[in-house]
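Z., the sequence and structure:
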Amino acid sequence: MTPIVHGLSGLVSGIDILLVDVWGVLHNGLAPPPAAGEALARFRRGGGFVTLVSNAPRESARVVEFLDGLGVTREAYDAVVTSGDITRTMLAQGKHRTLAYFGPDRDRSLFANLPLRETPIADAEIVLCAGLDDDETETPADYAGRLAECRARALPMICANPDLVVERGPRLIWCAGAIAEDYEKIGGAVAWTGKPHGMIYDAALDIAALSRRAPADRGRVMAIGDAIRTDVAGAHRLGVRSLMIADGIHARDLLGEDGQVDAAKAELFLGEAAFRPTAIAARLAW
């Protein structure tokens, strides 16, 4: 059975680097859990390095501003890397000059000031999917027609946020990954820039290695996150340990009425998962 732990204190002996999910661990879209930032700050005070690894479809500087606004202390982390960072680098280095965009206005910054022009699907060379145009009212099913049009033209897609859903307070909101999965189901080609895929982890470990002036030994790295499909699977692919936070997108499957991990529910849920975390905690704490 996967061990249920209270927090980091019994897990970080021999760990130099933490790769920490943001949404679902450091905040739920509306507020930060009180103990999470202090737990990471305590790890850092002991000599550890923390890189926040986010599937946010925007640049890391904007994520830092958002965390500041929520009151997440900067003492909790050393660096941030996002799927938005990876996406923008990919777009800047690519040869395409026209794109069709799926997503909210706020994430058009992904291609702002790049030599790319947004066009209708009929004139595009590539599709950039950052999310739903309006995630308060739409679902991935609303994109079936547009995806069929993209597939008919064999357009490649860049998915700037591989998450399927994310917390917004008590609700789960659809993300770009759900649209990209539907595109793959009809034969579309998708480049995934975030977790659980390798590019974002390579960047996160490079940042840690450069900052610490020492190679990142994967035997001394642990990932923390709330999603089996991205955080736990990504840690498994990377070959590092993982701590799963239950009070996130899988809360209904993992927590009891007391808000703590229900061992029986957790074992049932994890027994059906492709990968198991090293340990599970209700929420991030020391």
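The chain has nine helices and 13 strands. The longest helix spans residues 198-212.

Let me know what you think.
H.
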